[in-house]
Write a structure and sequence with these properties.
- By secondary structure, the protein is α/β, with parallel strands linked by helices.
- The protein has 3 domains: about 1-175, Response regulator (Rossmann fold, 3-Layer(aba) Sandwich); about 200-465, tm_1862 like domain (pyruvate-formate lyase- activating enzyme, Alpha-Beta Horseshoe), CATH 3.80.30.20; about 470-580, no CATH class.
- It contains 21 helices and 23 strands.
- α1 (about 25-35) packs parallel to α6 (about 155-165), α1 (about 25-35) crosses α7 and α4 (about 100-110) runs parallel beside α5.
């Protein structure tokens, strides 16, 4: 039997599977197939493979890899089962991958004869932009192309279907007892991931469902409580075993990101705000480190700021655990969504503005120190959604003033994620969809996005990575118009634009020389001042076009002293350790 798993990439409130992230769905699906049919040949393909193959472009080069056209078509033609995994519920901007939609992959797969199965969050639809409503059109298209649409867990359905098709229930959810085998067997699919081994980061699940939703209901827009009605914590030993399996195969980058709140792992339910369990988190991350001692990245993702604000002592202990066992550049994403208390109440949001402010302050106290890779150890990120029911002009101003207060008080927020609301079936917002006013407030939304980007993001970035900072291990991913774009591997890494063409898929140390609104400019170091182009030299801190002319006239330099006599002795402090003459 031949099974083709097609990864259309996923992005959900509690999970990411867009390269370089390898999400949970392809791994678990692979493991379920292998458990059901040990003799099955399972091939992992990406939507980029399909785009290349089915457009008939041999050896098409994408932004970060070359794809093999003949192999992909042969697999699709011979496959007995074609499994498509997709679903984009929290759309963002991606550097080197473009997630698919059901319409696209349905068109690709229609001609092939294998049994077609749709899994992952795609059954609810996908959104590539905010301010949209998922329509029935794409769901009807899926029904016309796919033989089976899985509304429960794909891995549970696949296993049952391959053992006995008549027993397979597309609504069934697996237990964590079942998942253990799927996760361990499925780890080996990472070998087929295009970014393996050096650049893949594995998303690791610890919990499903939303603890807050169990107490007082979920946020109006969120699909997580729709998919998972109950909260279930994955056993520590199972998480550690999966990390060990991936680490043994060669994976060195991990994000414990598949949960709605890392601070609520194994927490005690208590209405709106569960009581954190620092001992469980310490045991979990100590266990991960013990089986993956040479890992290069260990980050997390979501957290409910209300938990941190209401249980500061326990939360500080958890934050220190994340620092002790994790790696710098870690980001905990807070779901503020709106600083307007009326909007927060109407949409049942996670935390108040005051709780979020307090959580930001606490994490800054614990995690703002800079680590060896050039980034602070642990900072908050904040998610904002525009277009929620109940918003007025005052709502946007309150949210802006919240960020202004953080900035004025000297606090740091690694990133501010601004999205327009997307309305998905099954969410409470679906029943309030007539009150979503993204079109009515379109100009206001554009104005405040611009205001936050220019007046908050820019000075915040300058605070987080000042000019002269060296970021270590920046992977070059994309070439565009003579520029190279790269980023570190981790949660919400900064995009670094380098003003020269660099060989891709290599790691560089980069001197930060400038700031944009959401990205930064850097120059790879060491910098050979005798050979480097004028274009790059003029980016060096304190060196402008006039000084570069003098450098070009005087070089080659025989010593660093000669160079600093030309550019100014005061530049030695910033540049002394990063320039070379050979």
């Amino acid at each position: 039997m031949i099974v083709a798993i097609i990864d259309g990439y996923t992005d959900e409130p509690a999970g990411l599977g867009v390269p370089p992230y390898l999400g949970i769905y392809p791994r678990y699906a692979y493991g379920a197939v292998k458990k059901a049919r040990r003799d099955a040949r399972v091939f992992y393909l990406t939507i980029d493979d399909l785009r290349a193959a089915l457009e008939g472009e041999r050896g098409v080069a994408t932004k970060n890899k070359t794809l093999n056209f003949p192999r992909t078509r042969e697999i699709l033609e011979r496959a007995d089962v074609l499994v498509y995994i997709g679903g984009l519920h929290t759309p963002g901007k991606y550097l080197s991958a473009v997630p698919s939609q059901v319409e696209e992959v349905a068109r690709f797969l229609r001609p092939f004869q294998g049994v077609k199965i749709l899994g992952g969050p795609a059954f609810m639809g996908s959104a590539h932009a905010g301010g949209t409503r998922i329509t029935s059109r794409e769901l009807l298209l899926a029904q016309s192309v796919f033989d089976h649409i899985v509304y429960g867990d794909l891995e549970a359905f696949l296993h049952d279907y391959l053992v006995n098709p008549s027993d397979a229930d597309p609504l069934r959810f697996r237990t964590y007892g079942e998942l253990r085998d799927y996760a361990l067997l499925g780890a080996e699919v990472v070998r087929q991931f295009p970014d393996f081994p050096d650049f893949v980061i594995a998303e690791i699940e610890t919990q499903r469902g939303c603890p807050k939703a169990m107490g007082i209901g979920g946020c109006s827009f969120c699909t997580e409580p729709v998919r998972y009605r109950n909260v279930e914590d994955r056993p520590i030993e199972d998480v550690v075993a999966e990390v060990e399996a991936l680490y043994t195969l060669g994976v060195r980058h991990f994000r414990v990101g598949r949960q709605s709140c890392i601070f609520s792992y194994m927490a005690k339910p208590d209405g709106r705000v569960p009581v954190p369990n620092p001992e469980a988190l310490e045991k979990l991350f100590r266990g991960i480190r013990s089986v993956a001692p040479g890992l290069k990245t260990l980050h997390v993702d979501n957290a409910n700021p209300a938990v941190i604000a209401n249980y500061p002592e326990e939360s500080v202990r958890i934050a220190r655990t994340l620092i002790e066992y994790g790696t710098p550049g870690n980001v905990v994403a807070f779901g503020l969504e709106s600083a307007d208390p009326k909007v927060a109440k109407l949409n049942n949001l996670n935390a108040t503005a005051e709780e979020t402010y307090e959580a930001v302050r606490i994490l800054n106290e614990v995690g703002a120190k800079r680590g060896p890779n050039g980034m602070p150890w642990l900072l908050p990120g904040i998610n904002v959604i525009f277009g929620l029911p109940g918003e007025t002009k005052k709502s946007y101003e309150l949210t802006f003033q919240f960020f202004k207060r953080l900035l004025d008080d000297g606090l740091m927020v690694r990133r501010i994620n601004i999205r327009q609301v997307v309305v998905f079936p099954g969410t409470p917002l679906w029943h309030m969809r007539d009150r979503v006013k993204t079109e009515k407030h379109k100009k206001l939304i554009q104005h405040y996005k611009y205001k936050i980007r220019h007046e908050i993001d820019l000075p915040m970035l300058r605070r987080i990575v000042p000019v002269g900072t060296i970021l270590r291990d920046v992977r070059a991913e994309v070439l565009e118009n003579g520029l190279t774009y790269g980023r570190q591997i981790g949660s919400y890494p900064l995009i670094v634009g380098m003003p020269k063409e660099m060989p891709l898929n290599r790691f560089y140390d980069v001197l930060i020389v400038g700031h944009g609104y959401r990205s930064i400019t850097g120059v790879p170091v060491p910098i050979n001042v005798n050979r480097e182009s004028p274009r790059v030299l003029q980016y060096l801190p304190g060196i402008g076009k006039k000084t570069v002319v003098r450098v070009l006239a005087e070089r080659p330099f025989g010593s660093k002293d000669e160079f600093f006599r030309v550019v100014g002795e005061e530049k030695r402090k910033t540049l002394g350790d990063v320039i070379t003459l050979k």
